[in-house]
From TrEMBL:
Low complexity bias locations: 1-19
Organism: Aspergillus keveii
Protein name (record): ER-bound oxygenase mpaB/mpaB'/Rubber oxygenase catalytic domain-containing protein
Coiled coil segments of this chain: none
Spans annotated as Disordered: 1-23
Pfam families: MPAB_Lcp_cat
InterPro entries to which the protein is assigned, alphabetical: MPAB/Lcp_cat_dom
Domain ER-bound oxygenase mpaB/mpaB'/Rubber oxygenase catalytic, first and last residues per copy: 49-264
């Protein structure tokens, strides 16, 4: 993805917003900062299950950040909790965009409690720079899905989506002023990180486990894994695909073209009720999770 911004600007953008675990963190409110823009466009996007095709792309880009990779590697069994992680990611997206104040306080309160435990000498899940990077990967993933299957977005559409996607960072305690002020500034930040972040062995291990889950999955998910894997490795920035050793070969590229063509042909004919079935399920999961949190103080069933 090209930008008209120079590397010098990219470097300045990144270094002025980057924070580190030993630095003093901003005083955040109980559960989140207010959004930069109301997520009106995001609500229509999140309601369509096709955007879940970008979930694995998002996670693999997040693991490019060494602090995110280390925290996930040391504190979460990603590969062995594949289904649960995707389910909770769906819940997070839905509560950030569609949740009531009560739901946000409950869900994000638990998220922040868990994050406070994920830390070490050179990483902390409370680092707002990691929340900024998380929001950035979600924004780019949405664009990948949107433009692959529905055509090029206009500049105005991208600008609107860019501002709205800040909510994924502010929901995780990223101060609003850390979000790039313009779309060009964002692409400078993105391009710089993609070019310079150090891909660790921990990240490679996590990526392999996500692309090739080591445990049996329910049939409802097992058939989708090869499809999601194919589109993910064909969407990854070239450097990340190379560093993760998942560059798409000719067979993968051909399969990707076939998948995209098939989805474009079939999706318009899918009944509207089916296009958002998983999203509605995620909203129900949010309501159940809030009830569990009220009762036990935990998100999960145990």
């Amino acid at each position: 993805m090209s930008t008209s911004t120079t590397t010098t600007t990219a470097t300045r953008t990144t270094t002025t917003t980057m924070t580190f675990p030993h630095e003093k963190k901003p005083n955040a409110p109980d559960y989140m900062y207010p959004p930069i823009a109301e997520p009106l466009l995001l609500r229509s996007i999140i309601s369509q299950d096709i955007y879940l095709l970008g979930a694995l792309f998002t996670i693999l880009c997040q693991f490019a950040h060494p602090a995110l990779a280390k925290g996930s590697y040391k504190h979460s069994q990603f590969a062995y909790r594949f289904q649960q992680r995707l389910q909770k990611t769906g819940c997070f997206l839905n509560v950030a965009v569609n949740g009531t104040d009560e739901e946000k306080r409950a869900i994000f309160g638990v998220v922040h409690k868990y994050h406070s435990r994920v830390k070490g000498d050179d990483y902390s899940a409370d680092d707002p720079e990691l929340h900024k990077w998380t929001a950035a990967t979600l924004f780019v993933a949405i664009i990948r899905v949107r433009e692959t299957f529905f055509g090029k977005m206009t500049r105005n559409e991208r600008e609107k989506l860019f501002r709205e996607c800040a909510i994924f960072g502010t929901s995780l305690r990223m101060p609003p002023e850390m979000w790039p002020s313009t779309l060009d500034e964002f692409w400078a930040y993105w391009d710089y990180n993609i070019a310079t972040l150090i891909i660790t062995d921990e990240a490679r291990s996590l990526v392999h486990g996500m692309l090739y889950p080591p445990m049996a999955l329910p049939m409802s998910m097992a058939w989708a894994v090869p499809v999601v894997r194919t589109v993910t490795i064909n969407w990854l920035p070239e450097r990340l695909a190379r560093e993760y050793n998942v560059q798409p070969g000719l067979a993968s590229q051909a399969a990707y073209v076939g998948i995209v063509s098939w989805v474009k042909a079939v999706y318009p004919w899918v009944p509207a009720g089916l296009k958002g079935q998983l999203s509605r399920g995620n909203l129900e999961d949010v309501r159940k999770a809030v009830a569990r949190i009220k009762e036990t103080g935990h998100w999960g069933t145990k």
